[in-house]
Amino acid sequence: MAAQMTRPAALSSVSRGRLVVCAATAVPKQFKAVKPVGDRVLVKVDKEEAKSVGGVLLPASVRNKPTAGAVIALGDAKAVKLSDKVIYSKFAGTELEVAGEEHVLLKEDDVIGVLPSTDKVAQLKPLGDRILIKGAKAEDKTAGGVLLATDSGEKPTFGTVIAVGEGREDEESKTVIKPNVEVGSTVMYSKYSGTEFEEDGEQYIVVRESDILAQLA
Protein backbone atom coordinates (compact mmCIF):
# COMPACT_ATOMS: atom_id res chain seq x y z
CA MET A 1 0.00 0.00 0.00
CA ALA A 2 1.14 3.53 -0.66
CA ALA A 3 0.83 4.86 2.86
CA GLN A 4 3.79 4.73 5.19
CA MET A 5 3.23 4.02 8.86
CA THR A 6 5.65 5.56 11.30
CA ARG A 7 6.82 4.01 14.54
CA PRO A 8 5.88 5.91 17.72
CA ALA A 9 8.96 7.46 19.30
CA ALA A 10 7.96 6.28 22.76
CA LEU A 11 8.17 2.64 21.72
CA SER A 12 11.42 0.82 21.15
CA SER A 13 12.66 -2.68 20.43
CA VAL A 14 15.87 -2.10 22.38
CA SER A 15 16.11 -3.45 25.92
CA ARG A 16 19.17 -2.83 28.13
CA GLY A 17 21.33 -2.16 25.09
CA ARG A 18 20.27 -5.32 23.31
CA LEU A 19 18.00 -5.62 20.30
CA VAL A 20 14.93 -7.68 21.12
CA VAL A 21 13.82 -9.86 18.21
CA CYS A 22 10.32 -11.31 18.48
CA ALA A 23 10.01 -14.40 16.30
CA ALA A 24 6.64 -15.59 15.07
CA THR A 25 5.19 -18.72 16.65
CA ALA A 26 5.08 -21.50 14.06
CA VAL A 27 1.83 -23.47 14.06
CA PRO A 28 2.64 -27.22 13.72
CA LYS A 29 2.12 -28.47 10.17
CA GLN A 30 -0.56 -30.99 11.14
CA PHE A 31 -2.89 -28.10 12.01
CA LYS A 32 -4.38 -26.48 8.92
CA ALA A 33 -6.62 -23.84 10.50
CA VAL A 34 -6.57 -21.34 13.38
CA LYS A 35 -9.91 -20.41 14.94
CA PRO A 36 -9.74 -17.21 17.01
CA VAL A 37 -11.48 -17.26 20.41
CA GLY A 38 -13.44 -14.41 21.98
CA ASP A 39 -13.17 -11.05 20.23
CA ARG A 40 -9.94 -11.99 18.43
CA VAL A 41 -9.32 -11.93 14.68
CA LEU A 42 -6.72 -13.68 12.54
CA VAL A 43 -5.08 -11.47 9.93
CA LYS A 44 -2.88 -12.60 7.05
CA VAL A 45 -0.13 -9.98 6.94
CA ASP A 46 0.67 -8.04 3.79
CA LYS A 47 4.05 -8.81 2.25
CA GLU A 48 6.95 -6.56 3.20
CA GLU A 49 8.34 -4.17 0.63
CA ALA A 50 11.76 -5.57 -0.29
CA LYS A 51 12.84 -2.61 -2.46
CA SER A 52 13.02 1.13 -2.02
CA VAL A 53 11.18 3.55 -4.31
CA GLY A 54 14.28 3.71 -6.51
CA GLY A 55 14.40 -0.07 -6.87
CA VAL A 56 17.30 -0.59 -4.46
CA LEU A 57 17.06 -3.87 -2.53
CA LEU A 58 16.66 -3.16 1.18
CA PRO A 59 18.21 -5.29 3.92
CA ALA A 60 15.63 -6.92 6.17
CA SER A 61 16.65 -4.73 9.12
CA VAL A 62 15.49 -1.49 7.46
CA ARG A 63 12.29 -2.63 5.79
CA ASN A 64 9.05 -1.18 7.07
CA LYS A 65 7.19 -3.91 8.90
CA PRO A 66 3.66 -4.13 7.48
CA THR A 67 0.82 -3.34 9.84
CA ALA A 68 -1.95 -4.21 7.42
CA GLY A 69 -3.53 -7.40 6.20
CA ALA A 70 -6.74 -9.27 5.40
CA VAL A 71 -9.02 -10.84 8.00
CA ILE A 72 -9.19 -14.58 7.28
CA ALA A 73 -10.82 -15.84 10.50
CA LEU A 74 -12.60 -14.31 13.46
CA GLY A 75 -14.19 -15.20 16.77
CA ASP A 76 -16.91 -13.01 18.25
CA ALA A 77 -15.60 -9.77 16.75
CA LYS A 78 -18.38 -7.42 15.66
CA ALA A 79 -16.70 -4.48 13.93
CA VAL A 80 -14.85 -6.43 11.23
CA LYS A 81 -15.77 -9.21 8.86
CA LEU A 82 -14.00 -11.82 6.77
CA SER A 83 -11.85 -10.47 3.91
CA ASP A 84 -11.75 -6.95 5.40
CA LYS A 85 -8.41 -5.20 4.81
CA VAL A 86 -7.41 -3.83 8.20
CA ILE A 87 -4.70 -1.72 9.79
CA TYR A 88 -3.65 -2.68 13.29
CA SER A 89 -1.44 -1.43 16.09
CA LYS A 90 2.21 -2.07 15.25
CA PHE A 91 3.18 -3.88 18.45
CA ALA A 92 -0.12 -5.62 19.13
CA GLY A 93 -1.14 -9.23 18.88
CA THR A 94 0.65 -12.55 18.56
CA GLU A 95 2.60 -13.24 15.39
CA LEU A 96 1.97 -16.67 13.89
CA GLU A 97 3.46 -18.57 10.98
CA VAL A 98 0.75 -20.68 9.37
CA ALA A 99 1.68 -22.89 6.40
CA GLY A 100 4.78 -20.73 5.86
CA GLU A 101 2.79 -17.49 5.72
CA GLU A 102 2.95 -14.63 8.24
CA HIS A 103 -0.19 -13.97 10.27
CA VAL A 104 -1.10 -12.05 13.40
CA LEU A 105 -3.73 -12.91 16.01
CA LEU A 106 -5.29 -9.70 17.33
CA LYS A 107 -7.89 -8.52 19.78
CA GLU A 108 -10.59 -6.59 17.96
CA ASP A 109 -9.65 -3.46 19.91
CA ASP A 110 -6.13 -3.60 18.38
CA VAL A 111 -7.60 -3.08 14.90
CA ILE A 112 -7.24 0.62 14.10
CA GLY A 113 -9.53 0.67 11.09
CA VAL A 114 -10.77 -0.92 7.89
CA LEU A 115 -9.25 0.13 4.58
CA PRO A 116 -11.37 0.62 1.45
CA SER A 117 -10.65 -1.27 -1.76
CA THR A 118 -8.47 1.66 -2.88
CA ASP A 119 -6.12 1.14 0.12
CA LYS A 120 -6.27 4.91 0.71
CA VAL A 121 -5.69 5.93 4.32
CA ALA A 122 -7.70 9.10 3.63
CA GLN A 123 -10.75 6.83 3.24
CA LEU A 124 -10.00 4.64 6.26
CA LYS A 125 -12.96 3.65 8.45
CA PRO A 126 -11.69 4.02 12.04
CA LEU A 127 -13.03 1.52 14.58
CA GLY A 128 -14.37 2.01 18.07
CA ASP A 129 -13.74 5.43 19.57
CA ARG A 130 -10.91 6.19 17.16
CA ILE A 131 -10.78 9.34 15.03
CA LEU A 132 -8.99 9.89 11.70
CA ILE A 133 -7.35 13.31 11.45
CA LYS A 134 -5.64 15.02 8.52
CA GLY A 135 -2.70 16.87 10.01
CA ALA A 136 -2.21 20.59 9.63
CA LYS A 137 0.81 21.80 7.67
CA ALA A 138 3.91 22.61 9.69
CA GLU A 139 4.97 26.25 9.79
CA ASP A 140 8.12 26.82 7.72
CA LYS A 141 8.89 30.25 9.26
CA THR A 142 9.34 31.56 12.78
CA ALA A 143 7.18 34.37 14.16
CA GLY A 144 9.95 36.77 13.06
CA GLY A 145 9.87 35.52 9.49
CA VAL A 146 13.06 33.41 9.62
CA LEU A 147 12.96 30.42 7.26
CA LEU A 148 13.17 27.10 9.13
CA ALA A 149 14.99 23.99 7.97
CA THR A 150 12.61 21.19 6.99
CA ASP A 151 13.45 19.04 10.01
CA SER A 152 13.28 21.91 12.52
CA GLY A 153 9.66 22.94 12.00
CA GLU A 154 7.45 22.36 15.01
CA LYS A 155 5.26 19.36 14.32
CA PRO A 156 1.59 20.39 14.55
CA THR A 157 -0.66 18.55 16.99
CA PHE A 158 -3.91 19.67 15.42
CA GLY A 159 -5.78 18.93 12.24
CA THR A 160 -9.13 18.30 10.57
CA VAL A 161 -11.33 15.35 11.48
CA ILE A 162 -11.82 13.16 8.39
CA ALA A 163 -13.71 10.20 9.86
CA VAL A 164 -15.08 9.08 13.23
CA GLY A 165 -15.58 5.56 14.54
CA GLU A 166 -18.97 4.27 15.67
CA GLY A 167 -17.96 4.46 19.32
CA ARG A 168 -16.99 2.24 22.23
CA GLU A 169 -19.22 -0.10 24.17
CA ASP A 170 -19.93 0.82 27.78
CA GLU A 171 -18.94 -2.16 29.95
CA GLU A 172 -21.92 -1.82 32.28
CA SER A 173 -24.82 -0.77 30.05
CA LYS A 174 -23.45 -2.46 26.89
CA THR A 175 -24.61 0.57 24.91
CA VAL A 176 -22.36 2.14 22.28
CA ILE A 177 -21.11 5.62 23.19
CA LYS A 178 -20.38 7.64 20.03
CA PRO A 179 -17.37 10.01 20.06
CA ASN A 180 -18.33 13.62 20.73
CA VAL A 181 -16.38 14.88 17.70
CA GLU A 182 -17.78 15.76 14.29
CA VAL A 183 -16.30 15.29 10.83
CA GLY A 184 -14.92 18.59 9.54
CA SER A 185 -14.05 20.03 12.94
CA THR A 186 -10.51 21.13 13.79
CA VAL A 187 -9.10 19.47 16.88
CA MET A 188 -5.97 19.50 19.02
CA TYR A 189 -4.63 16.14 20.21
CA SER A 190 -1.97 14.82 22.56
CA LYS A 191 1.52 15.13 21.09
CA TYR A 192 2.66 11.50 21.35
CA SER A 193 -0.66 9.78 20.81
CA GLY A 194 -2.07 7.75 17.97
CA THR A 195 -0.69 6.06 14.86
CA GLU A 196 0.71 8.23 12.09
CA PHE A 197 0.54 7.74 8.32
CA GLU A 198 1.90 9.59 5.30
CA GLU A 199 0.09 9.39 1.99
CA ASP A 200 0.44 11.51 -1.17
CA GLY A 201 2.42 14.14 0.73
CA GLU A 202 -0.23 14.49 3.43
CA GLN A 203 0.05 13.55 7.10
CA TYR A 204 -2.68 11.58 8.84
CA ILE A 205 -3.09 10.28 12.36
CA VAL A 206 -5.60 8.00 14.05
CA VAL A 207 -6.17 8.77 17.74
CA ARG A 208 -8.65 7.71 20.39
CA GLU A 209 -11.29 10.19 21.56
CA SER A 210 -9.52 10.41 24.93
CA ASP A 211 -6.47 11.84 23.13
CA ILE A 212 -8.46 14.82 21.81
CA LEU A 213 -7.61 17.82 23.98
CA ALA A 214 -9.84 20.49 22.46
CA GLN A 215 -11.86 21.58 19.44
CA LEU A 216 -10.76 24.78 17.72
CA ALA A 217 -13.12 27.35 16.23
From TrEMBL:
Source domain of life is Eukaryota
Q: Do you know which Pfam families this protein is assigned to?
A: Cpn10
GO cellular component terms, alphabetically, are: chloroplast; mitochondrion
Q: Which InterPro entries does the record cross-reference, listed alphabetically?
A: Chaperonin_GroES (IPR020818), Chaperonin_GroES_sf (IPR037124), Chaprnonin_Cpn10_CS (IPR018369), GroES-like_sf (IPR011032)
Q: Which CDD domains match?
A: cpn10
Q: Which GO terms describe its molecular function?
A: ATP binding; metal ion binding; protein folding chaperone; protein-folding chaperone binding; unfolded protein binding
PROSITE patterns named in the record? CHAPERONINS_CPN10 (PS00681)
Concerning SMART domains, the annotation shows: Cpn10
Please give the Gene3D superfamilies that the UniProt record associates with this protein. Answer: GroES chaperonin (2.30.33.40)
Q: Which UniProt keywords apply?
A: Chaperone
Per the record, the similarity remark reads: Belongs to the GroES chaperonin family.
Q: Which NCBIfam families does the UniProt entry name for this protein? A: PRK00364.2-2
Designated name of the protein: 20 kDa chaperonin, chloroplastic
Tell me which species this is from: Pleodorina starrii
- The gene it comes from is PLEST009813
